[in-house]
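Box 3.1 A note on notation
Throughout this textbook, protein chains are presented in two layers. The first layer is the amino acid sequence; the second is a token string describing backbone geometry. Keep the layers aligned when reading.
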Amino acid sequence: MRRFVHGGVRLALATVAAIMSVAAVSHEVPALGGGFATFIVTSTSDAPDADTGDGVCDNGLGACTLRAAIEQANATVGLDTISFSIGSGVQTIRPATALPAIMDAVVIDGTTQPGFAGKPIIELNGDAAPDYADGLFILAGGSTVRGLVVNGFNEGILLMFGGGNTVAGNFVGTNVAGTGADGNFNGILISESTNNTIGGTTPADRNILSGNSSAGVYVAGADGNTIMGNYVGTDYTGLVAIANDGGGVGVNNLGSGNLIGGVTQGAGNLISGNGNGGMFLGLVAENNVVQGNLIGTDATGSTPLPNNGPGVAISSEGNNTVGGIVPGARNIISGNAGVGIWAAGGPDGDTLRGNSVHSNGGKGIYNPSGEPASPVVTSAGPVVGTAAPDCTIDVYSDDADEGRIHYGFTTADAQGDWTYGGPVGGPNLTATCTDVGGTTSEFSAPFAVGCAPDDADCEGVLDQVDNCPHYANPDQADGDGDGIGDICEPPSADVDCNGTVNSVDALKVLRSSAGLPVQQGGVCERIGHVLLGGKFMGDINCSGAVNSVDALIILRMNAGLAVLIPSECPPPS
């Protein structure tokens, strides 16, 4: 694992390297016109280009190295592409010195290597490089890095100044198999660079950012970046921890307006298995949004994979948002060794609403400032309580003292009295207060309601009138009017709507999960479409994503074999 070089030394060295690269391009060799060239790396050696002025990637021995390709791309104005054809299968490039900083927009595409079948097979390894060396140092905006394994460096990938870059489909900090650690200091560092995208909404765009000695992704003084669809702190399956020792995702030093996750299908990150907590919003990190993520569970969302610390830590008040009340906004923050959410609070604090927070080692929400005060639940049926005047009350249930299920919200009056008349479950009710400034309190003390003998799902709706008596659906939503609650509508394994569950359905789910086009006939919804009850078409196990596990379930159903479905998911039809 790469040891850290002090930031000032690293930046000084990087600046010198960048200036030298600019000098080489500007003074030694005139930039070539036209751009849009493709340089094909054919060798794992580290030799430089023989003549950066000829537009040909050649180390003088008839081979194109990655170093030479970067030198040529820097010398060629315009968006160039670096592709790979180094024999076939896994190939490792070990630079002896830091690679040139990338000064002009480029696409580095490891998926072009012969033998690529979905997992990166071009490894960029820093074991032979100086301690200060970064794997890729990108100063140019508009660049893309895809399909690489980057390990053993100071920063695995450093994005600085130039914005609008995309980093997708890489393993950063793991071995080539994606099963063990081979860390950098930070996996990806975004420093004073805006509007970058790390990951994407398809499995092909997912980065595995794990095994690093500091963070999987660290955003320092950078605004408007999107971090979505990644596995941070786990192996490539999302089921086994490969910790980033310093935490999963960090935003610090005036980082503002960054989005971690999102409300669209596939945008949420898996941030689990990390040392020192899952997420950290630090010094004057303002107006950042954290939505749709799994923090402290494995990729199924139901099995603990703890971060060793808080799920989310917010150290200074900064109008950040964690969760929300729109579909897809909630985070599942569960199973962490520390508190679920640690929030500094105060008059300009952070909004924490609509999340599923449960089964953590400490409080669900810890607010050391005590501002605003937690509400008090005084009775149920309807739910009645007191709180700070005019605050928004979110009502939850939990089997302990956190907030597993969010039911809805109401507003306290000028005297602080409030009533929530919607159906709720149990066995305990809790509530939070979000004041007029947007700061959310800790959960209230739990109010025990138990479950009525004829309310099997403990939601406050009696079984004889409940349209889904074995799964909690306090709103009784029934969008198609068939008398079966939306949450109880079983996920259909017949994804092509032809009346038969077979291997074609499994193939379509696999193609969709890989981001490939899928043809659906007639009125059959596209795979991934949000159905009644918030499920996705093709999400057979109700995990919140359509992936190869769903395809396997379909194949087992087709073969008449038993399938394992989480208890909260209706059996597929």
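The longest helix spans residues 7-28. The chain has four helices and 37 strands.
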